Amino acid sequence: MESLFPNKGEIIRELLKDPLILKNDSKRSNGSELELDSSDLLQREAILANELNILDNLKTFLNLIKEVKTNLNILELENCYYSLQSLRKKMRNNAAYLKQSFNFQQSISTYVDTLHLELVSTLYKILTNGFWKITENSIQFTPTVEWGKDKVHIEYDTFMDFVAQQYFPKGSLDNQAWFILDMTSADSQEQVRAKLNTIMKEYMNLSRIVSMIKNSIFISGKEISYENEKNILVFSKSSSHGQHCVSTVLTSFEAVCDFMLDGLAFRDRKTLSYELGPLFNTEFTKFVKNNASIILESLDSPLKNLVSVINNKLTRLVAKSEVTNWTHSGKEIQDLLMNKRLYYNLLLDKVLESHISEIRSIFEDPKKSWQNLEVVELTTSYTNTMSEKIGKNDSDVQNEKEHHNAVSKDDDWNWEVEDDDADAWGDEIDVNIDDEEEKTNQEKEKEPEEEENAWDEAWAIDENIDDASLENGKEHLKAHDVGSLDKDHIEVTQLPKLFLAISQNFKSSFADSHIDEQYFAYKYNLLQTSYMAMCTANFSHNWCQLYVDMRYLIERDEKLYRIKELTRNLLETKLNMKYRIVCQLIRHQLTEFRENERNPSWDATIEKLLPYILKEIVRPLQKIRGEEGSRYLLSFLNFLYNDCVTKEILKWQIISEVNSENLGELVSLLVNNTDIQLLAKEPSYKKMREKFATMGKFLPLHLKEIMEMFYNGDFYLFATDELIQWIELLFADTPLRRNAIDDIYEIRGTALDD
């Protein structure tokens, strides 16, 4: 070294002139040169080397950022992604970077966040404006695009594989992935997340396309066409009707199938098939069945051929989609197209629908012309039975008096009325009378006043009841006069005539067809059920007129088995409900007697029970007339006198003197207000009322007076045990009562011996 630089002092002087080497001016003293510390010089050299290394490391950040920008500009999107990933990794692990100031790191991180957003925005733009062009009225797909200033060639399959693998590796967006988690700017992070979610929803799951197709296929008024050259699906409105509408719907569905089969990449075909396939399978089959009468109009119908083509395409779509959530072999549709019996059955469904619509149109008539009444003749089948019943004369009644002791104990009242419901009443009847009346009133208020008056006039029903006569009970309510019609005629609406025409037309439509008989019978029953349901809804308060109409309809066509069954159920259901109300009102009145015998309220009987019996039971059954009207009237009186009153009173432990008068008055009210002229010649009706009236007569009497009635033969309708039960209930156990009972046994026993 010394050989190279012999003048050592000169070298030191030159070095001392370098400001980087000099520590400070204090190293100079009085112009004299200070000797340089060699160790200090080496330390400074190390510091400079370290700073140079830091700058070199920071330079790699700049290179990576440039690399990201370059890849983004030349649309090397996958390389851009990996460069960005490397940049983020260095930002996390590079010691030189981490030693920099917070502001420096924040500045770099914010800039890199913009690169994230720029990359995702580029992906979004390529999908939105490149591969897919989706508007409100069209869907266009291009499998290869040229993008950017340099017209970079981008393949859809490669592009989507990259997007799916890097951004949605598990089939959804992972918010913990580095691409989102490493970002520091909340705004940029949210924008990236929003765009990725949109890409996932609209271009991975194709939700918008699924929605557009769902809302347009198999819907009248919508039309879809497919342009193969442009690979575009066009949605428009359609004004076609009838057969043309069916053709439009089918061609629209075919266009969707063609688009999925020929215009889409495999991944998108699979996605759409998975989302729409079950709907395609169900709705296509349903549409073909519902429109079988149009599609199968003839064996060589163009629509039939179109359905066959679509059926094959749908089968191909399942195979090419490789999905497992739905299948379509095409066999069901093919069988439908080739099976004549099935064709006729489906045709029957269509005809049934049109006939039900025809029935519905009857009740939609604003003039309500179906309510017009006409007089018809009661058939022999309904009048002969009544003639036989009322043919007994008074001598027959006298003969029955003489043989009253031979009456079976199983029917002590000897009413000779078949009452299937006699034992069907439980101890608890949970009918709220006030609610029932309120409901009835509310329903009546909903009906047009004009219509209500028209029905009342047609039925000759006087809704006004004399309150005074109800209060004192002396003037009994007159039973409804069935009008000026003779016993062989009755009034019906236009409904029977209208339905007979519809029924005949329905049957004649398939008189010579190959329809399965059981299937036809099922559909014919369905037609009758629909008719009955609509009639019931429109006769909410005129159920007896509905019964008269249905009975007349059955007379005209005895093969209306379903209507016959429903009519019988209608009458029984209506009467059973009204029986329950009557029973509860009677029980309410009897409870009032027990709880307040000296001053009981009679509202339950006078204000509610008697008007209800007249308006809701007696009048409607008289309106029905015929054998059923009389039979059900007798059945009701049997129920009222026996089940509701007599049996309930006999359940008491004892009857006080005051209550015996109350009960006698109750029986008298019921007898006076259930005088039905239609049954005046019916023997069982006479005995029924006579026995019940006798009960009301003896209830308030003393034992001596009752025994006088017994000696006079007034209790010929009462069995011995029954009469004794009443005496034991009315009077305390005294020698007088025991003597009376002994007399009854003795006299009745002698009569039996004779």
Automatic annotation (TrEMBL):
Ranges for domain Retrograde transport protein Dsl1 N-terminal: 6-360
Single Gene Ontology BP annotation: endoplasmic reticulum to Golgi vesicle-mediated transport
Species of origin: Saccharomyces pastorianus (Lager yeast)
Ranges annotated as biased composition (Acidic residues): 424-438
GO cellular component, one term: cytoplasm
Stretch forming the signal peptide: none
The protein's name: Protein transport protein dsl1
Domain Retrograde transport protein Dsl1 C-terminal: 560-753
